[in-house]
Amino acid sequence: MANDQEVLAEIESTSGTRRVVLLGILTLFAITATAILHVNQPEFIKYRFIGITDFEYSLFDSTLYLSYLIVGITTGVLSDRWAKRRLFVLIGASGSIVFYLLMPTTLSYPLLLLYRFLQGSFTVMAWQTFMTLAIDFSESHNRGRNMGIFGVFLALAMGLGPAIGGVIASVGVFVPYYTAAGLNVVVFAIALLGLRDPLMTKARPTLKQSFTIARKSPELVVPGIFNLFDRLHIGFILTALPFFLSEVLGLDESLRGMALAIFAMPFIILQYPMGKLSDKHGRFRQLVIGSLGFGAVISIIGFVGIQGFSLLLVMLAILGLFAGITSPPAMALVGDIVGQEDSAMGMGFFNFLGNLGITIGPIIFGVLNPIIGMSYAFVVVGLLELVTLAMNIILVRTVFRDRIT
Question: Can you give the pTM of this predicted structure?
Answer without folding.
Answer: 0.71
